[in-house]
Design brief:
The protein has helices at 12-21, 28-35, 66-75, 85-92; strands at residues 2-7, 25-26, 46-54, 64-65, 115-117, 131-137, 140-146, 153-154, 159-168. With 169 residues, it is of the alpha+beta class. 30% of the residues are buried. This is Helicase.
C-alpha cells in the first residue's frame, strides 16, 4: 500500500467526529492515545506519502524490535509518520481487506492484516500505547492503539507504514 494522504486541518474533536460518522471504532488504547495531550494535530493541511512495508522488507527475516526497525528505516531514507496520520489514513483506507478470516488469533503479536503506523513513541511507560494500527474485523474498520516494550520482537510479516515526505499543500 502506497498512498499520498492529506493530513491536518481538523481539530481533535473534529477528527474524532469524522471517525464516528464513518463508524470507525477504537479500542481503549486508541482512545487513550487519541486523548493524550502529546497527540497533537496540525492546523495546516499537508500531504504525506505513506509506504507500507513488512518487517522483512527492511532486512529482518527473523523479526526485529521497534527501535531496530525504526533505525533501519531511517538509514534507508524513510521517516516516522506524524501520529495524526493514523486517524487520517484510517478514514482514507476504507478498502482494507479482512485479515483474520480463517487465521488463528494470538496475543502479543500484530493481528493478521493489520497495518501499524510507524510514529514517534510518546512515552517509555510500557502501559502507555506506542502508536496506532489499522484493522478490519468482520467488515468494521478500527483505529486501534497497541502496547509493546522496546524488547518486543516484531514478526517478519508484520506491516508498518512509514513516510517518505511531508509536504505542505
Amino acid at each position: 500500500m502506497n498512498r499520498t494522504i492529506a493530513v491536518g486541518g481538523l481539530t481533535k474533536s473534529q477528527l474524532l467526529q469524522k471517525l464516528q460518522q464513518h463508524s470507525i471504532l477504537m479500542n481503549k488504547y486508541g482512545e487513550r492515545l487519541f486523548d493524550d495531550e502529546h497527540f497533537v494535530v496540525s492546523d495546516t493541511v499537508y500531504s504525506v506519502k505513506a509506504v507500507a512495508l513488512k518487517v522483512r522488507d527492511l532486512g529482518f527475516s527473523e523479526g526485529a524490535t521497534i527501535p531496530q526497525l525504526f533505525k533501519k528505516a531511517s538509514q534507508v531514507g524513510l521517516k516516522l509518520c506524524p501520529l495524526e496520520l493514523g486517524p487520517h489514513l484510517r478514514l482514507e483506507y476504507v478498502d482494507q481487506p479482512e485479515g483474520h478470516l480463517g487465521k488463528p488469533s494470538w496475543r502479543h503479536r500484530a493481528p493478521y492484516g493489520s497495518l501499524t503506523i510507524a510514529s514517534k513513541i510518546l512515552s517509555d511507560d510500557v502501559h502507555f500505547p506506542k502508536g496506532f494500527y489499522l484493522r478490519r474485523i468482520d467488515g468494521v474498520l478500527w483505529l486501534r492503539g497497541y502496547i509493546a516494550d522496546h524488547l518486543h520482537v516484531l514478526q517478519p510479516d508484520d506491516h508498518f507504514v512509514f513516510c517518505q515526505n511531508n509536504v505542505l499543500i
